[in-house]
Amino acid sequence: MDPILDWGVGIVLWFQMSSPSLDLPFRIITFMGNEGFFILVLPFIYWCVDRRTGVRLSILFLFSAYINSAAKVFASQPRPFQYDARVKQIVNAGGGGLPSGHTQSALVFWGYFASCFKRPLLWVIAGLLIILIPLSWYGGHGCRQCLTIDSGHESL
Questions:
Q1: Residues with Cβ < 8 Å from 38, sequence gap 6 or more?
Q2: Alpha-carbon distance 83 to 93, whole Å?
Q3: CA 44 → CA 37, 50, 67, 156, distances in Å?
Q4: Taking phi first (over 0 means left), then psi (-120 to 50 degrees means alpha), and beta for anything else, what does residue 30 get?
Q5: CA distance 20 to 1
Q6: Is 136 within 8 Å of 33 (Cβ atoms)?
Q7: What digits encode the pLDDT tens for the residues 24-82?
Q8: How wide is the angle at C-alpha 87 spanned by C-alphas 81 and 89, nearest 5°?
Q9: N or C: which terminus of the chain has fewer CB atoms within 10 Å of its end residue's CB?
Q10: What is the DSSP letter of 92?
Q11: Separation CA 112–CA 134 (nearest Å)
Q12: Quick check: helix, strand or coil at residue 85?
């Protein structure tokens, strides 16, 4: 057993004590980090908000997703529900758990979007989503998988 994975499982189990009462709000929040959300929002930004921002954000997002997919192959770390049978699989997730695609997508998309428009309220919303989207995957990732910037080094 890996002590860091064990610690992450403990945090996930603590969050899952609030299930099912947190399931619906977290499903709504986690949608804002799903591919389906980005498929809807990126064209909207391009066509209705600002073409330049839409193109740059799309390229940045796709490059980030490519890097994330490659990192998952190299890291090959299990998700909490694959590692410990006590963890309920609340979300449908395939592949490895490290690094978290939801966390990376939230950081890249919402961080860049807020930086483009430089409005204080947008920064607050982006910051909240960058924090809440990884938490909404309780059971899909452990804490280390949401805090990692590469395959094994935690950042704060």
A1: 61, 105, 109
A2: 14
A3: 11, 9, 24, 33
A4: alpha
A5: 28
A6: yes
A7: 887 888 888 888 899 999 999 999 999 999 999 999 999 988 888 887 777 667 766 66
A8: 60
A9: C
A10: -
A11: 17
A12: coil
Q: How would you class 47 by CB atoms within 10 Å of its CB: exposed for 0-12, middle for 13-18, buried for 19 or more?
A: exposed
Q: Which residue has the tokens 């995957």?
A: 137
**8 and 143 in contact (C-beta within 8 Å)?**
yes
Half-sphere exposure of 84 (CA within 13 A, CB side): 21
Domain ranges of the chain: 25-154
Report d(CA 35, CA 131) in Å as an integer. 18
The size of the chain, in residues, is 156
Q: b vs e for 3-42, b when ≥16 Cβ sit within 10 Å of the residue's Cβ?
A: eebeebbebbbebbeeeeebeeebeebbebbbeeebeebb
Residues 82 and 96: their CA atoms lie apart, in Å, by 9
What's the rounded Cα separation, in Å, for the pair 139 and 80? 6
pLDDT of residue 24: 81
Alpha-carbon radius of gyration of the chain: 16
